[in-house]
């Protein structure tokens, strides 16, 4: 359960049984073992859209880790993105749910206590259509790198970590 | 830092696609909806203990983990030949009503309502939940978020985990609920009933009061005279958690009623070379191609199908709304595809009323939530009504309960023939003589399948955070003349 002092959330997104799709969850699980600080919550989930609002509300800072397919990158490449990367994607044509940017904008309009700072680490993936618990080799190699990047990031803003 | 542009066209995997083929005259010859399928699930499961299945299947799909969890748990009951005690069944149903509300609310308010409130041809930049809030008022957004969170809280407390429940075990549930939890659920359920009423009132004011929309709902573009399939209780009322499967023909006459175990006698699957997904049909009627009518084995599942196969709703407010819908739309069964949305709102009300009943049941806090299995495991089927329709899990194990075979038939696949037909019909009605198809027109084609709330593969969470859809139009020479992509 959440402690009122905890204000940073690290959220790994993805499907941990769909090969590379689960890379965000794998990074989050590795971070969970590495980080013991009570100020940081580490979670993993396969969620989208409006569910984000329930999950992010109450945190000051959020780091999201997810899979991405840009079509240009090489598998294992890590991108650091911010919310502006999503500004072009706001239609409601998704068969399931609204997208991330729309959900956040709605949350802000409704005055929810959403984080002021959201960073996204996205790992370029190769196989997201076959079931399996392990990522492809290139993506597997990226997991410790991404963990290190996030630890460095946390240290730069929260010195005691 | 490298700046990148996220372009869904490049995300071909996990990508929904509508292809529209025009003839020499520029009219629509045919249209196809393609939904990608994830591969290797059966193999992934083989060799694992069957009691792990309820926890694995919540990962199949980020949208309906609760539905897969409960269907799978019921299948493990059957594999172990064990009946859960009454309190466990009630607790599962309580959890499941909350799941149904959570799913239906997102679909209606985020996806369906913008087409009506803003208009099907309105600017796509505004045709979304933000536009809805801007037009109807902020308080509607707050209501939606609050009640979805209530439904989520109930699932999390019973499920043991926020989004991926772990509560279901062969023969029951992992833990009972406390009196304090029950009381909290009861308060939330009362509020959810009011929210269910609010949704139907909103539909009245914004959709039914608009003659144009009512004509759109009942018009030819979105009509299909199919069979329907859904689960009913002993009184032929809608039930999401358990019962028999009932099938009615396009005239509303019962043509089959069977136990979930017997699904293979009633459902067969046709394949097409151009589609990853199979095309289920009624085995006893037969596959006659993608045509409607009583001689075609094409059937539909999901909200409207459940209401069409049933003789009513088991709770009073939902029953009154059920009667009003059929009265307004000219009797049973209703073949108007857009009425799936209306039926979904009636189901939200039913689920909320049922939730409240279960919260007030004396037995709901009973600690007796597990019957320990003693029989040798072998084979079992678990069926429930997922938000999107009938969901079947079928497992076979060795005598130690290790999975040897898995067969799942999910609701979106059941609706695959019907969705293709609905898309084709809408395209044929809306695109004439090669007239340049506008975004609004194509949105109206999409409305034909959006009504089914399809679950397109399961990687929905992957960036950019929603499933893109591509619409491609070909001329008579099979050359691409238009390509629209939904960002």
Write up this protein:
The complex is a heterodimer of chains A (161) and B (487). Chain A has 161 residues and is an alpha/beta fold. Chain A has a single domain (8-157), classed as 3-Layer(aba) Sandwich (Rossmann fold). In chain A, 30% of the residues lie in helices and 20% in strands. Chain A contains four helices and five strands, in the order βαβαββαβα. Chain A has a five-stranded mixed β-sheet with strand order 2-1-3-5-4. In chain A, α1 (23-34) packs across α4 (137-157). Chain A is globular, with a radius of gyration of 15 Å. The model of chain A is unreliable at 87-95 (pLDDT under 50). Chain B is built from 15 helices and 15 strands. In chain B, α6 (138-159) runs antiparallel to α7 (179-208). The two termini of chain B are 24 Å apart. Chain B folds into three domains: 8-36 and 415-486; 53-216 and 358-400, Cytochrome-c3 Hydrogenase, chain B; 224-335, no CATH class. Chain B has 487 residues and is an alpha+beta fold. At the A-B interface, α2, β3, β4 and α3 of A face α1, α4, α5, α6 and α15 of B.
